[in-house]
Amino acid sequence: MAEGVKARVKAPRTVAAGETVVIKTLISHQMESGQRKDSDGSLIPRSIINRFAVAYNGQNVIDVALAPAISTNPYFEFEAVIPEAGDMVFTWYDDDGSVYEEVKSIAIG
Amino acid sequence: ALMLPASAVRAAVEDKIAEFTGGADAGADGITLTTPEIAENGNTVPIEVEAPGAVEIMVVASANPTPDVARVSFGPLAGAQRLSTRIRLGGTQDVIAVAKMGDGSFRRAANTVKVTIGGCGG
């Protein structure tokens, strides 16, 4: 697992049924592009998060394939429809095989 | 960063887009790509793309060492076909977004971003 990876998600706790909400996510990750060279002139190998998926109660919201052109600490903002109370599951997939998951519960009120 | 001749890079970008569209023509309506006119720091350039009714959107950077930036598919619970993120640009270039719509047609938008400090770390 890459060092010090930390995911942050901003999502509302309570919404009206059927409401569309804005979700913001950030994960700390160096997103090493594979284009940079170290002080000896050798290429630093690519090491990025290559996929980010969001599902609510098992139904897909967005699924993103990331290339090395996504900045350090990948940030995403998008919208989701919340039909009923449940859990939003955020999953980031690292080149090194690590999987980082965050869950936010949303209530109807 | 490795510099390829501009014509080769353009061809690679068009190939990448043709792979996504299957060679179909892309309309210019119904897709909005928002980028800064000038990015002082190419390491983190905010972009937003929206195409109501899209099932998938591909974003490419026309003059990066590799053109791929991101490809997003929208599921049944997407509240809008919109995504904002931050990207790396190696220098001044066009950012291109291509959307595949629910009816199988395509939409395309491109913006030029002037980059003061490149973000490829080469």
Automatic annotation (TrEMBL), chain A:
Annotated gene: soxZ
What is the protein named?
A: SoxZ
Which superkingdom?
Bacteria
- Pfam families the UniProt entry points to: SoxZ
The Sulphur oxidation protein SoxZ domain, residue ranges: 10-102
Q: Which organism is it from?
A: Rhodovulum sulfidophilum
